Amino acid sequence: MRADHAEPGSPADWLRHARSDLAIAGARKSRQILYEHQCFHAQQAAEKAVKALLVDHGISVPRSHDLAFLFTRMPRDIAVPLELVDLPLLTKYAVQLRYPGETVPIKTREHRTALRLAKRTVEWVESIVRNIKPNARLHR
Description:
49% of the residues lie in helices and 0% in strands. With 140 residues, the chain is mainly α. The protein has a single domain (8-135), classed as Four Helix Bundle (Hemerythrin (Met), subunit A) (Up-down Bundle). It is globular, with a radius of gyration of 15 Å.
């Protein structure tokens, strides 16, 4: 089955959506695109990748955007890479940035950090989820 036609709710489908969010998060900056929205999509990419991992291991996906909570649901035999220790910090972008006036503007450096964490999360999950081939475009 092609990755763009993954079975709904499958790990491949979750990763397809994670890659889409990651592409939006990494889109070239323009005056019309706010870093706040790109950070939201970075968080969504990471969240959906982690949920792909949970689904792959037969764990029901909780309705939560909290990355720290999602990590507690992971099988004990899966070690989160040390470079992703700050990933739960992206949780603040899940809801807080959706509405104008509820946050301070995001700076370039903060966006780069969010994007790096999201990209690394998607790559990590792709490397361990069964029967998923890594997306070569992520490895530029």
